UniProtKB/TrEMBL annotation:
It holds the Pfam family SBP_bac_1. SUPFAM superfamilies: Periplasmic binding protein-like II. Residues 33-46 have a biased composition (Low complexity). It comes from Clostridium thermosuccinogenes. InterPro entries: Bact_solute-bd_prot1 (IPR050490), SBP (IPR006059). Residues 47-61 have a biased composition (Acidic residues). Coiled coil: none annotated. This is Sugar ABC transporter substrate-binding protein. Residues 25-66 are annotated as: Disordered.
C-alpha cells in the first residue's frame, strides 16, 4: 500500500508538473501566435522580414511653394525702414506676426533675410557697374520714376515664382500705376502696405455738434458726402473766435491739410477727373483741359480759399501749423494721409474726431482717395542675377503676410481711434484708392510736372489765375513730355546726344 501510495504520489506530482508545464507552454504559444499574426506570418517559426521605417510625409503649408534648400542664400532688402522687417519682439501682435513670417521663410528655404539702408546714388552706381545692389528695393513711389527712366528696374512680370495676379497682391497694389502694358516696374505688397498713405478727412466732432451739422458718417453711408456738402459745412464753421473783426490764424475755419501743395491735387482726383488719361492701347493724354476739369478747379478754389474756408497759416510756419490748428479746435476738417506721423498729434487732442473718405466731386458717384506718391513701393534691380531665388522668397513673403494688414488696422483701432465708425471707414479705404500716371511721369520728364503743377498753382496758391490760360501755356510741352514718358515706360527711350558747340 505504501508502495502504491508512493507511486500515486509520484504520478500525482508528475501530473502537477505536466499541468504547470502545459500552462507555461500554452502561454508561450499564444504569445508566439499573436506575434506571427501581427507580422502576417502563417507559421511561428518564420523570421519576420526587415522593413525600412517610413519617412514622415512632408506637411503642406498651403503656400503652393516648393521647399527648396537655397544653401544659406542671403536675401538683401534695401529699405530705410528697418522695423518693417525686424520689429521689436513682443511689442505688438503685428510685430510678432512679422517676426514669425521672416523666420518661416528663412527656415522654409534655408536662407537669410537681411536689410541695408537704401541710397538712390549707391543704387544707381551699382546698376551702372553691373553689380548686385539688393534683391529688392523699397522706396517712395515717386522715386521709382527716376529708376524707370534710367532702366534700372526689372519687369516684375518676368520674375519666376511670383503670382502677381493673386488676390493678396492685387488687394494691396490698388492703383497699379507702376504698370504700363505688360510691364510692371514696381508694386505695393501685403508686407509693404500703402493703406496708411491713402488720404482721408478727419473731422472735429465737437464743432459738428456745436453747429448742429449733419453727421459725416451718415452722409458717407447715404452717398451724400460731396464737394458741395463739405463746402457748406466749411462755410458754417468759420468763426471770428477772438472777436477782433479780422480773420487770421487766431480764428476758426473749415479746412486744413498736412501739405498745402497736395490738397488741390487730391480734391481734383477725388472729383473723378484724371491728369493723364492712359488708354488700353497705351495712348496717354493730358486731360486737365476739359470743361469738367476747369469746373472742378473752380470748386477747389472755393474749398481752399485761405482766410475764408481754409486755415491761413502764418508766413514762415511749417506745415505742422495746419495740424496744430486742427488739434486746437480751429479747423473743422483736416485732409491728409495717416502715414509718416504727420497727423499723429490729433490722436492726443481733447476733442473727439472721426475719419471719412474724401468727398465726391463733379465727375464721379464713388469715393476716390489719393494714395500719396510718398507711399512705399518695392521694385527689383535689373542688376540682380538671382531672380529665381528672389522671386521664390518674395512670393513666400507675400503669401505669408496677406492677413497682417488686419492686425495693423486693429492696433490703430485700439490705440488711436475714437469710435467704431472710423474703424469701418478705414477698412474700406483700399476700395477708394486712386492715383495718376502724372506722379510717375513728373520724374520721367519735367514738362509733365508743369502740367501737374497747374492744379496747386491755380487751385491754391494763385487763385486769381484762370486755369484755362495756365493750361494753354504748358499744354504743348506737356504733350511732348508725355510722349517721351511713353517711350521710357516701354524701355525705348534713347537719351539725345548733346548738341555740338560750333562757336569759334
Amino acid at each position: 500500500m505504501l508502495k502504491k501510495r508512493g507511486i500515486t504520489w509520484v504520478l500525482l506530482l508528475a501530473m502537477i508538473i505536466g499541468i504547470i508545464a502545459s500552462g507555461c507552454g500554452s502561454s508561450d504559444k499564444k504569445t508566439t501566435t499573436d506575434s506571427t499574426t501581427n507580422a502576417g506570418s502563417t507559421a511561428s517559426t518564420e523570421t519576420p522580414e526587415e522593413t525600412t521605417p517610413e519617412e514622415p510625409e512632408e506637411q503642406d503649408d498651403g503656400s503652393g511653394l516648393p521647399d527648396q534648400d537655397l544653401g544659406g542664400y542671403v536675401f538683401t532688402v534695401a529699405d530705410n525702414n528697418a522695423s518693417r522687417w525686424f520689429p521689436e519682439a513682443g511689442s505688438s501682435d503685428l510685430a510678432n506676426a512679422i517676426i514669425e513670417r521672416i523666420n518661416w521663410v528663412q527656415e522654409k528655404f534655408n536662407c537669410k533675410i537681411e536689410i541695408r539702408n537704401h541710397s538712390e546714388d549707391e543704387f544707381a552706381t551699382a546698376v551702372m557697374a553691373g553689380d548686385k545692389y539688393a534683391d529688392i528695393i523699397v522706396t517712395p513711389t515717386w522715386e521709382l520714376g527716376r529708376h524707370i527712366k534710367a532702366k534700372r528696374l526689372v519687369n516684375m512680370n518676368t520674375i519666376p515664382h511670383l503670382r502677381l495676379d493673386a488676390e493678396y497682391w492685387n488687394r494691396y497694389d490698388s492703383t497699379s500705376y507702376l504698370s504700363y502694358g505688360d510691364i510692371k516696374y514696381g508694386t505695393a505688397a501685403p508686407f509693404i502696405t500703402q493703406s496708411d498713405e491713402v488720404w482721408v478727412i478727419a473731422f472735429n466732432k465737437a464743432i459738428i455738434e456745436e453747429l448742429g451739422l449733419e453727421n459725416p458718417y451718415d452722409l458717407v453711408k447715404n452717398k451724400q458726402w460731396t464737394f458741395e456738402k463739405m463746402l457748406e459745412m466749411q462755410q458754417a464753421a468759420k468763426r471770428d473766435l477772438n472777436g477782433d473783426g479780422a480773420f487770421d490764424s487766431n480764428d476758426r475755419y473749415g479746412l486744413a491739410t498736412g501739405h498745402d501743395w497736395d490738397i488741390s491735387v487730391v480734391l481734383y482726383l477725388a472729383s473723378g477727373n484724371k491728369i493723364i488719361d492712359v488708354k488700353e492701347d497705351g495712348t496717354m493724354k493730358y486731360v486737365v483741359n476739359t470743361p469738367k476739369a476747369f469746373e472742378t478747379i473752380d470748386m477747389i478754389k472755393k474749398m481752399c480759399k485761405r482766410g475764408d474756408t481754409f486755415f491761413p497759416k502764418n508766413d514762415g510756419e511749417d506745415m505742422d501749423a495746419y495740424v496744430k490748428a486742427f488739434t486746437e479746435g480751429k479747423v473743422l476738417f483736416l485732409a491728409y494721409s495717416r502715414g509718416r506721423g504727420v497727423i499723429d498729434p490729433i490722436y492726443e487732442m481733447e476733442d473727439d474726431f472721426g475719419f471719412v473718405p474724401m468727398p465726391m466731386g463733379n465727375n464721379t458717384n464713388e469715393y476716390k482717395c489719393w494714395v500719396s506718391h510718398d507711399a512705399p513701393s518695392l521694385a527689383v534691380p535689373v542688376s540682380n542675377p538671382d531672380l529665381d531665388k528672389t522671386g521664390l522668397i518674395l512670393e513666400a513673403l507675400a503669401w505669408k503676410s496677406q492677413d497682417e494688414d488686419e492686425l495693423r488696422l486693429n492696433e490703430v483701432a485700439y490705440t488711436k481711434l475714437r469710435d467704431d465708425e472710423s474703424f469701418e471707414i478705414l477698412k474700406e479705404l483700399g476700395k477708394y484708392a486712386v492715383s495718376d500716371m502724372a506722379f510717375i511721369g513728373q520724374q520721367l520728364d519735367g514738362a509733365i510736372w508743369q502740367g501737374l503743377n497747374v492744379l496747386p498753382h491755380c487751385g491754391f496758391y494763385v487763385q486769381d489765375e484762370e486755369p484755362a490760360s495756365k493750361v494753354a501755356s504748358v499744354e504743348e510741352q506737356v504733350a511732348i513730355g508725355i510722349e517721351n514718358a511713353r517711350l521710357m515706360l516701354l524701355g525705348q527711350w534713347v537719351e539725345p546726344e548733346p548738341e555740338e558747340n560750333n562757336e569759334g
